[in-house]
């Protein structure tokens, strides 16, 4: 297991990074604050995601919180200091930076798995909505608490709405509804619920095994196609997809995948 925070990213303080073969595990590491999202943590997550974006040897990113809690949302102390500002445009600019992180994590070429235990509140719930696979414990607590603080869930609102649909998003945001793991699955926020942390980790290992059967380049192109499908008219999206298909088919990865199928053997990446 390799500690990337020491080898490649010396300025990381609020995260712990561990690489195990093709899996990069990112731990939110502010357990004393229930892993609340500080400006420093947001900047560091951006740095890490940028640094591995084009590295196909990293096939999966697993995001999790230290101390038995995933993420309690935004750093309220940081909000309070922001209230001292008099220029609304500066407050808006600061808020918008978290939206950039949400976009980046949502469309990261690697497969992103988020493991939720303890709680995912506010921005933490928003993060859970941009993973390719989100697994939660049955007793994990969820809430969009922003409106109870007198602010909107501004940067996470589009992503939560995309995940759960407009009707449920309205209910969750405008009532500050509290719910747990089973309902997170019912709402579509999570894909699986675990009885406890041991089960959570076992389910994650099973999914990591499934990902190993998928070519990393093909997965990256597939994610790009998925998001362009949402942005472009249908014909343009299909044109984009056809170029991605050709790129993969003619690549060494595509040639290896077809050869492995014909020869009835595992592909080179499936180890």
Describe it for me?
With 271 residues, the protein is α/β, with parallel strands linked by helices. It folds into two domains: 4-212, Alpha-Beta Complex (2-enoyl-CoA Hydratase, Chain A, domain 1), CATH 3.90.226; 216-262. The protein is built from twelve helices and nine strands. It has helices at residues 4-7, 39-52, 76-82, 88-106, 123-128, 157-164, 166-175, 181-187, 197-212, 216-231, 234-249, 252-262; strands at residues 15-20, 23-28, 60-65, 111-116, 119-121, 133-137, 141-143, 178-180, 192-194. The longest helix is centred in the middle third of the chain and has 19 residues, at 88-106. The two termini are 17 Å apart.
CATH topology descriptor of the largest domain: 2-enoyl-CoA Hydratase, Chain A, domain 1
Q: Name the average pLDDT.
A: 93
Q: Major sheet: order of its strands?
A: 1-2-3-4-6-9
CATH architecture assignment name of the largest domain = Alpha-Beta Complex
Strand content: 15-25%
Span of the ends, CA to CA: 17 Å
Task: Give the C-level CATH assignment of the largest domain.
Answer: Alpha Beta
Count up the helices: 12
Largest sheet, strands/sense/barrel: 6 strands, mixed
Name the shape in a single word: globular
Q: Would you list the SSEs in sequence order as H and E?
A: HEEHEHHEEHEEHHEHEHHHH
Q: Which value, in Å, is the CA radius of gyration?
A: 19 Å
Number of domains: 2
Strand tally, please?
Answer: 9
Helix fraction, binned, reads: 40-55%
Within CATH, the superfamily of the largest domain carries the name 2-enoyl-CoA Hydratase, Chain A, domain 1
